[in-house]
Amino acid sequence: MTGTLVLAGTPIGDVQDAPPRLAAELAGADVVAAEDTRRLRRLTQALGVAPAGRVVSYFEGNESARTPELVEELAGGARVLLVTDAGMPSVSDPGYRLVAAAVERGVRVTAVPGPSAVLTALALSGLPVDRFCFEGFLPRKAGERLSRLREVAEERRTLVYFEAPHRLDDTLAAMAEVFGADRRAAVCRELTKTYEEVRRGGLGELAEWAGEGVRGEITVVVEGAPDKGAEEVDAGELVRRVRVREEAGERRKEAIAAVAAQAGVPKREVFDAVVAAKNAEKGAGRGAGKDAEKNAGI
Q: Any coiled-coil ranges, and where (predicted)?
């Protein structure tokens, strides 16, 4: 008989949000794998429970090395509880590798559902919630961050991001550059904590606000791109969208196909627009060259 891997959600702020089953799982697990054992200790003290099993650390730095050990424990029949600092394991936190390895070994995986900064921010944002996608943390380097944002520049679903407070102003400015300064967004800070704040507005406005300095845990929710019908997308816009995708690393053929599908027009129409724009640029370049020769008296 194999054991069971339990993924348990932990409070993202207010400890009273801890799911009732969390205390029982902490007390009964054979092994408790925690992202930060010191934070786990504070949590167990607040819940008035003492883990009876072995407590081990499981964080980004040792995740690869510790996963095989925990899988062997599970294969031997142990009940392993995985908790992170806040929210659900695996969601921008350690856990995915362990879940994948446990599934591969045929180990049962279950969960104790709990608080989620993603869903909480989404619900509070005031933006559409029927369709959304979670993008996690953006790259720290400016160029890579812009490239990642360009990949979703035409995404119509609401976007949810995590961000560090000291990078928030740069991130919002980059979003304003790629998505447009007027694109609606919400910055959710310190969710469920004493100084919880939800700041709503255009990306440009929010970037200016964040420049004054922001503290705390941050979740950013951004409105999806407007839904433009095929009749609203002219040739110039089609070309721009293809270029955005090419700059993000897509090959032209795939970029044209994706833009055509998104705009609801034939691929040939997008291809012709790209070719026409390229020829126009070449013609403009030749014209500029002739003007230069004329001015030089050649």
A: none
What are the distances in angstroms from CA 298 to CA 282, 285, 286, 289, 295? 21, 17, 15, 11, 8
Rounded to whole angstroms, what are the CA distances from 172 to 149, 152, 155, 282? 11, 15, 17, 36
Query: Which 3-state string (H, E, C) describes the chain?
Result: CCCEEEEECECCCCHHHCCHHHHHHHHHCCEEEECCHHHHHHHHHHHCCCCCCEEEECCCCCHHHHHHHHHHHHHCCCEEEEECCCECCCCCCCCHHHHHHHHHCCCEEEEECCCCHHHHHHHHHCCCCCCEEEEEECCCCHHHHHHHHHHCCCCCCEEEEEECHHHHHHHHHHHHHHHCCCCEEEEEECCCCCCCEEEEEEHHHHHHHHCCCCCCCEEEEECCCCCCCHHHCCHHHHHHHHHHHHHCCCCHHHHHHHHHHHHCCCHHHHHHHHHHHHHHHHHHHHHHHHHHHHHCCC
Locate tokens 């989620």: which residue? 116
**Torsions phi, psi of 159, nearest 5?**
-105, 140
Name, in order, each residue with C-beta under 8 angstroms of 9's C-beta and a sequence gap of 6 or more: 19, 22, 87, 88, 89, 111, 112, 113, 114, 115, 116
Spell out the residues 6+ positions from residue 257 whose beta carbon is closer than 8 angstroms to its own. Answer: 267
pLDDT over 80 at 257, yes or no: yes
For 139, the token pair is 């790259």
- Model confidence over 139-191: pLDDT tens digits? 999 999 999 999 999 899 999 999 999 999 999 999 999 999 999 999 999 99
Query: Which residues does residue 200 pair with via DSSP β-bridges, in sequence order?
Result: 186
